[in-house]
Design brief:
71% helix, 207 residues, mainly alpha, Tetracycline Repressor, domain 2
Length: 207
């Protein structure tokens, strides 16, 4: 007998609770310190329920790290690297990127774990690395666009993009503020200097 809509919704809700609990544990206790038992307790589900969705801890870890990439892509790849006004596009991009990263502390802790041990988590790292290449490449094209129009000074676009993506992660990991606040707005203002705009950047925001 096929599952009812309510049963399907309950299963999706249970899976979401498991993933949220697992992300918190993997981020704070690491891969070795996290067990299926701990996940089931934190998610308030039975031990066997976890295996309904994931065959083992490795599969759970893979999903916890890779599944959020879909939302992350939507939040950070929205900008138009071919914009006729690359300076304005960059300002809007900075604001939205810092807003997104302000809300992703636990997830980025996991990302850093994977990158730091990329040989151990080869399959997961491959997904992250491919996303980073796309992200960095698109930012680099925006930088190049701005240089061609004359709103950014000449420098290596890929180096600028690499420094920028590294800054986003670094600021997130070094901040305890999980909300987008005035301080994050100032981070975004200062980050604009990485792109070397030819006009003077003030502390009045990114408008």
């Amino acid at each position: 007998m096929p599952l009812s809509e309510k049963q399907i919704q309950n299963m999706e809700l249970r899976k979401k609770k498991i993933l949220e609990a697992a992300m918190g544990l993997f981020a704070t206790e690491g891969y070795e310190g996290t067990t299926i038992k701990k996940v089931s307790v934190a998610a308030n589900v039975s031990f066997g329920s976890v295996f309904t969705y994931f065959k083992d801890k490795e599969a759970l870890f893979y999903t916890v790290v890779v599944e959020p990439l879909t939302e992350l892509k939507e939040r950070v790849l929205f900008f138009d690297e071919t914009s006729a006004d690359p300076l304005l596009e960059t300002k809007q991009m900075l604001r939205e990127h810092f807003r997104a990263f302000a809300e992703m502390n636990r997830y980025l802790q996991l990302v850093v774990q994977v990158v730091g041990q990329h040989e151990r988590y080869a399959d997961v790292f491959k997904e992250l690395d491919e996303f980073h290449d796309v992200f960095r490449g698109k930012v680099g094209k925006l930088v190049q666009n701005g240089q061609q129009i004359g709103v950014f000074k000449k420098q290596d676009p890929l180096i600028v993009a690499t420094l920028y993506t590294s800054l986003l992660i670094g600021v997130r990991l070094n901040s305890t503020d999980n909300r987008y606040s005035d301080v994050w707005e100032q981070y975004a203002v200062t980050a604009l200097n990485l792109f070397a705009p030819t006009e003077k950047v003030t502390d009045k925001g990114l408008s």
